[in-house]
Amino acid sequence: MSAGAIFVWELLGTATLILLGNGVVANHVLRKNNGHNAGFLFINLGWAFAVFTGASIANPSGAHLNPAVTLGLAIADKTEWSDVPFYVAGQMVGAILGAILCWATYKLQFDDHPEPENTLGIFSTGPQIANTAWNLVTEIIGTFVLVAWILLSPSFKAGDAGVPTFGNSALGYAGVSFVVLVIGASLGGPTGYAINPARDLGPRIAYAFVLPIKNKANANWGYSWIPVVGPLVGGAVAALLYLAVHNLT
């Protein structure tokens, strides 16, 4: 697949992921919505099926949608290193676009919200208890589970033109969605489980520099590196585990 095609498919898939994922949080947080105060499980379910939808759209590129997944697959020799910049660029642009579309969908609710300074959490994650080291550990562990499952799944194989396919053969991308759902329900409490640098950084950039939300707070840049570095480390460790296991066989 050409670099341009990778960029476009990853952009489309990630934009859909972020539109729907940020959208379910907006539905929960902002008042005068049918989903207002629907709860954490509501958010987890929305994000899980946002993954399914975005990944299904981005199937031609292998549906990484996540720089940590791309890095893990490259380390595991499942993705060409020369393609990595195009995957990541598509993911980042798509994440910014998805956040903008989410804001546009809920524009009236953002205007009506009585606490605009507390709207960053609709777009990006933050810790319940701020602690740099342990917040980083939480993101590493959550992303490790995701990427390890992708790589160690018995159904993983190389598809057409070397594009990887993964997940239970009967469930397809729904299998990945179930993994994201259980990561959110089991490990997502401390930091909001970014487990994806583009998912957090792209909307944070959109929030800070693009979205015209009146009286919004700052983008919490002091925390912003944790949901980037943590997932990348988790994805890399998962790939190293994959290589170690396969070198034993």
Fold topology:
Elements: H1 3-29, H2 40-57, H3 67-75, H4 84-105, H5 107-112, H6 120-123, H7 132-152, E1 157-158, E2 164-165, H8 173-187, H9 197-209, H10 221-224, H11 226-247
Antiparallel strand pairs: 1-2
Helix pairs in contact: 1-2, 1-4, 2-8, 3-4, 3-7, 3-11, 4-9, 7-8, 7-11, 9-11
CATH fold annotation: Glycerol uptake facilitator protein
Strand order of the largest sheet: 1-2
Q: State the end-to-end distance.
A: 31 Å
Number of domains: 1
* Biggest sheet features: 2 strands, antiparallel
Secondary-structure content class = mainly alpha
Shape annotation: globular
Whole-angstrom Rg? 17 Å
- Helicity, as a percent range: 55-70%
Could you give the order of the helices and strands?
A: HHHHHHHEEHHHH
CATH architecture: Up-down Bundle
Number of helices: 11
The chain-level mean pLDDT equals 93
CATH class: Mainly Alpha
What is the CATH homology-level superfamily? Answer: Glycerol uptake facilitator protein
By DSSP, the count of extended strands is 2
Give the strand content. Answer: under 5%
> Which quaternary structure do these chains form?
single chain
Which stretches of 5+ consecutive residues score pLDDT under 50? none
